[in-house]
Amino acid sequence: MSFEVTGAGQGIVPEARRLVAAARRGFAPRSRPAALLDDCARRLDQPLRVALAGQLKAGKSTLLNALVGQDIAPTDATECTRVVTWYRNGSAPRVRAVAGDGARADVVVRRQPGADGLPGAHGLTFDLSGLRWNAGAPREVAHLEVEWPAETLARTTIIDTPGTSSLSREVSMRTTRLLTPDDPAAGALPGADAIVYLLRRLDAADVGFLERIGAAAGQSGPLGVIGVVSRADEIGAGRIDALHSARDVAARFAGELERTGLCQAVIPVAGLLAFAAATLRQREYDAFEALAGVPAEDLSVALLSADRFARSDLPLPVSPELRAHLAARFGLFGIRMAVTLIRLGVRDSATLAAELTERSGLDELRTVLDVQFAQRADQLKAHSALTALARTLTAHPGPTADQLLPRVRTLLADVHGFAELRLLGRLRTDELPLPPEDLAELHRLIGGSGVAPHLRLALPPHTDPTTLRDHALAAVRKWRSRATHPLADRFTATACRTAARSAEGILDLLHDPPTTPLTHLHP
């Protein structure tokens, strides 16, 4: 995930920071509202916070490892998966438990050995037994903080949450309280700026949780929510065409969720394969190469199940222990895919890793995360801060609230950037009755290829402002005209109006780039 920010929302963070500072001066230094506003101010200067949420065993920790490209999150269902875990960039690996009163204790990290000298297939574990708290008596762990040197974490804080359908209501409520705080006065700021919600199926529990997230976003609607059909390889029972089946399922989920505005996009990802590909070892490649020499029919019979594949009586050129390791790390789908790619001509581990990553769906997810989260990081963070500011001022009426609330609410109601996000999501599944070249232009104009003006207008990076302005003005006229066409259906007219407003936003940026945020658009 690349989290470089260009274009969208460049002016809204300074505006949010100014409003938070003005509100802060209206409260006593050590009061609860002042503490909340201090948190708002800090959040604006920190990396974007993205939470991974979903039901129990949805594959959140595995997907986190795949996105980071390192084995840093325990994937076994142990005590540490029952608490919220924050993953941040750090100079050296360190894991700490944090109690409700702020006390801390270092956590021992253990790695289990695997077959043939390889690391264990289930990665590391966090040992929460025998914690030594820095404030004396034993305490209950409120959350975990993981610092790890990783490029992705330098730009994004990732939050791994407990399953929303845990048998323990208290465990599930930890996720709910983090993402949708109930009491505005007690905890106005949601823990995350954006959410990746993992789905194995789409049931009432998933829809209910997503609706709660949407309601918590207030008048601006659901912000920064992407759905992932996790463990996508299991949908096709591990067959070589499993991802095709998963795409059909993802399209169905997307249609149901995007019609209600609960998600901007739904992507199928084989998380287990994505993580294994990111950490592929030479010894594993050698094993796949040996299996590629086995007659296809014999290998197909051996791969009927993971247990059968690891049987010691099968005449395969890989030890049973290593076969069991491959099944745990890659799954049957990953083994079939790796062997097939080698038979088709892949000749080294680096190429195999890249091919497996592409086929896992991770590259597509990264692209969507970049366009919908990374390039709009300032806008998402500002929305979190402004929402918290509005709730704090509402809960504490007075002269400060009377002066600032109208401006805060105006900014929150000005949500064109999120209209773009919702339209980008719908365009993944719904087709507009437009010529292909116009459809491509609309997709670019609303930020589908990036939010910088030259990317929206399909111009070279160093195009002069006059040319940018001329193209933006032409786009405004074109898409306004399309929006008012008498034969345009409602969806098409809305999409064209959104494109026109995006072009107007480019004109705003070119007219006054230091202070005018892209969200300030006028019909």
Overall shape: it is globular
Biggest sheet: strands side by side, in what order? 4-3-7-2-8-1-9-10-11
Radius of gyration: 25 Å
* Fraction in helix: 40-55%
Number of helices: 22
Fraction in beta strands: 5-15%
Number of strands: 11
- Classification by helices and strands: alpha/beta
Distance between the termini: 33 Å
Compute the average pLDDT: 83
Largest sheet: 9 strands, mixed
Low-confidence stretches at least 5 residues in length (pLDDT < 50)? 1-9, 218-222, 513-523
Describe the protein.
- The protein is α/β, with parallel strands linked by helices.
- It contains 22 helices and eleven strands.
- It has helices at residues 12-24, 32-45, 60-68, 151-155, 169-179, 204-216, 232-235, 242-259, 271-278, 282-292, 296-302, 306-309, 320-343, 349-360, 362-372, 377-395, 399-413, 416-427, 436-445, 453-456, 465-483, 490-511; strands at residues 48-54, 84-89, 94-99, 104-106, 108-113, 119-127, 141-148, 156-160, 194-199, 225-229, 265-268.
- The strands form two sheets. It has a nine-stranded mixed beta sheet.
- A hairpin with a 4-residue loop joins strand 3 and strand 4.
- The longest helix has 24 residues, at 320-343.
- It is globular, with a radius of gyration of 25 Å.
- Mean pLDDT is 83; it is low at 1-9, 218-222 and 513-523.
